[in-house]
């Protein structure tokens, strides 16, 4: 196995909280709820469940979502959105029709829709990011939807919302103009030119209804698409001045026994984001404009999706079990690395949504009629949402490299540091990508306070094991306290176990003293 015979030399990380690389938008800690499998029905919503409230929302799941730190939720898709009629999900539930969902070959009963989602988001304390159907619908439906959702009263669709029981507008701030429109699998798939024109028209009418909204235009659904980044550039050229974000999606999985490359997925995400940002800046320069286009990474995760979900026995059923990946500590380490990449790009990545929230490639799993529990990938997402400060700060890292066949030589460690301006707390999120070797790390923190303490928690570090959390054993994979770091006059040293996610926090004796 890679790394088995290497001796690991000590790595050095020099952290300077005075050098701020970018402010952290709290919308980086977002998630994604799609009408796919058991994400909605049986996930966040299960009327009759012992833990459900009067509206059918599972309160045990809502509690976990709050613990996860979710700030924004993209809804209702995804591929589902490209064949979805928003009107089917509003009004009296007993009057709503059942429809065929062509994306996932399921039956959608529409008992959960826009109003129910808005109420659920109030319950968990998050905001909505809504995806408009530009697959089978036109700009008229986009105009009507934003009038229904965001206009006060006195018009046909705003008054319809009021009759449906929502006196106040939902006030949805951020909207996606379609989903993965470069993908031939997408209902209503279009060329870059055709989609760009449609997105520009939709953006125009939507912003006339509500000029305060922000819009994300679909970029390449993945950077392995042969059209990337030309697709992105052409779409942005047609929509520049009208949109605020380029929507990107990124999923990772292990190829065969190539664990080193899997653990190094964040290196690939770094490259993807850098190229997408370059496409945004190219279009801005070509237009000689002043408006900067930022990134909405509104689908990202590790996933093991294959064609098994296309089992014909599950076709045309309601909320079938689809893509219910079970995650190990190793998967959580990869997720931690992807979060590091997102944080590193916080100057331009302003929104990020882990995909999905419950049951389908998700940090939270549920059992119908039974418990809800945290998957291993829950913990790095919770850690970053909980401990990331206001800003990403400079971290100079010197360490060995490891060979990753898909990406070449990559640094053995992946570290991003943040600082809280008010408390002075510095948090380092550190991944040891080495599949088998522990890595000693010495951290030098500028102006470290003499009385500061250092806390180190770790997840992973057990090569060859693939333990997972289940309904019966929900606590098999948990973060644990590591050996206390050794304090030295100008920093501290600690040991990062192989294939591990580490959260290292330095506290100060008094707020305002960076320690």
From the structure above, extract its key features.
alpha/beta, eight-stranded parallel beta barrel, disordered N terminus, disordered C terminus
Can you lay out the helices and strands and say which pair or pack?
Blueprint: E1 11-23, E2 30-32, H1 59-68, E3 72-75, E4 99-101, E5 106-108, H2 114-124, E6 127-132, H3 139-150, H4 156-163, E7 174-177, H5 192-209, E8 214-218, H6 230-239, E9 245-252, H7 259-263, H8 265-287, E10 294-302, H9 329-344, E11 349-355, E12 364-366, E13 372-374, H10 378-387, E14 391-398, E15 401-404, E16 408-411, E17 413-419, E18 426-432, E19 439-445, E20 453-460, E21 480-481, E22 486-488, E23 491-496, E24 500-507
Parallel strand pairs: 1-19, 2-3, 2-11, 3-6, 6-7, 7-8, 8-9, 9-10, 10-11
Antiparallel strand pairs: 1-14, 4-5, 12-13, 14-17, 15-16, 17-18, 18-24, 19-23, 20-21, 20-24, 22-23
What's the number of extended β-strand segments?
24
Distance between the termini: 39 Å
- The best one-word shape is globular
**How many helices does DSSP assign?**
10
Unreliable spans are 1-6, 509-515
Largest sheet: 10 strands, mixed
Helicity level, as a percent range? 10-25%
Quick description:
This protein has 515 residues and is an alpha/beta fold. 24% of the residues lie in helices and 26% in strands.
Task: Tell me what the structure shows.
The protein has helices at residues 59-68, 114-124, 139-150, 156-163, 192-209, 230-239, 259-263, 265-287, 329-344, 378-387; strands at residues 11-23, 30-32, 72-75, 99-101, 106-108, 127-132, 174-177, 214-218, 245-252, 294-302, 349-355, 364-366, 372-374, 391-398, 401-404, 408-411, 413-419, 426-432, 439-445, 453-460, 480-481, 486-488, 491-496, 500-507. Residues 1-6 and 509-515 have low confidence and may be disordered. The radius of gyration is 23 Å and the shape is globular. Helix 8 (265-287) runs parallel beside helix 9. The chain has ten helices and 24 strands. Helix 1 (59-68) links the parallel strand 2 and strand 3 (72-75). It is an alpha/beta fold and 515 residues long. Helices cover 24% and strands 26% of the residues.
């Amino acid at each position: 196995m890679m790394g088995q015979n290497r001796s690991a030399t000590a790595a050095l990380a020099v952290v300077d909280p005075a050098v701020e690389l970018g402010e952290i938008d709290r919308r980086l800690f977002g998630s994604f709820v799609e009408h796919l499998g058991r994400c909605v029905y049986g996930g966040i919503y299960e009327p009759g469940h012992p833990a459900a409230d009067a509206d059918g929302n599972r309160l045990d799941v809502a509690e976990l979502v709050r613990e996860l730190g979710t700030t924004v939720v993209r809804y209702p898709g995804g591929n589902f959105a490209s064949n979805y009629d928003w009107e089917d999900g509003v009004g009296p539930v007993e009057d709503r029709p059942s429809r065929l969902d062509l994306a996932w070959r399921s039956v959608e009963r529409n008992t959960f829709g826009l109003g129910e989602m808005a109420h659920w988001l109030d319950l968990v304390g998050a905001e909505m990011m809504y995806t408009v159907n530009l697959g089978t619908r036109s700009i008229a439906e986009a105009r009507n939807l934003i009038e229904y959702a965001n206009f006060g009263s006195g018009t046909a669709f705003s008054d319809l919302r009021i009759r449906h029981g929502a006196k106040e507008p939902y006030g949805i701030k951020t909207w996606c103009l379609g989903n993965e429109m470069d993908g031939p699998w997408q209902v209503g798939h279009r060329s870059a030119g055709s989609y760009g024109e449609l997105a520009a028209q939709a953006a125009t009418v939507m912003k006339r209804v509500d000029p305060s909204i922000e819009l994300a235009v679909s970029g390449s659904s993945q950077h392995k698409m042969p059209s990337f980044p030309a697709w992105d550039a052409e779409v942005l050229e047609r929509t520049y001045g009208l949109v605020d974000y380029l929507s990107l999606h990124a999923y990772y999985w292990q190829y065969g026994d190539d664990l080193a490359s899997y653990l190094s997925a964040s290196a690939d995400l770094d490259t993807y984001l850098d190229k997408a940002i370059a496409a945004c800046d190219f279009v801005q320069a070509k237009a000689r404009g002043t408006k900067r286009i930022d990134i909405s990474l509104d689908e990202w995760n590790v996933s093991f999706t294959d064609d098994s979900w296309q089992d014909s026995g599950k076709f045309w059923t309601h909320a079938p079990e689809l893509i219910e990946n079970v995650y190990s500590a190793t998967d959580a380490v990869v997720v931690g690395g992807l979060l590091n990449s997102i944080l590193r790009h916080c100057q331009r990545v302003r929104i990020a949504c882990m995909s999905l929230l419950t049951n389908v490639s998700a940090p939270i799993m549920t059992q119908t009629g039974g418990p809800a529990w945290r998957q291993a990938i829950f913990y790095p997402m919770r850690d970053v949402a909980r401990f990331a400060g206001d800003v990403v700060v400079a971290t100079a890292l010197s360490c060995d490299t490891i060979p990753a066949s898909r990406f070449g030589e990559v640094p053995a460690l992946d570290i991003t540091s943040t600082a809280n301006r008010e408390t002075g707390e510095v948090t380092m999120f550190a991944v040891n990508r080495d599949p088998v070797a522990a890595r000693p790390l010495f951290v030098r923190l500028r102006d470290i306070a003499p009385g500061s303490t250092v806390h180190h928690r770790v997840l992973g570090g057990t090569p060859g094991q693939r333990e997972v959390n289940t309904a019966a054993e929900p606590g098999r994979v948990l973060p644990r306290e590591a050996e206390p770091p050794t304090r030295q006059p100008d920093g501290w040293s600690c040991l990062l176990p192989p294939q591990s996610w580490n959260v290292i926090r330095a506290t100060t004796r008094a707020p305002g003293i960076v320690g």
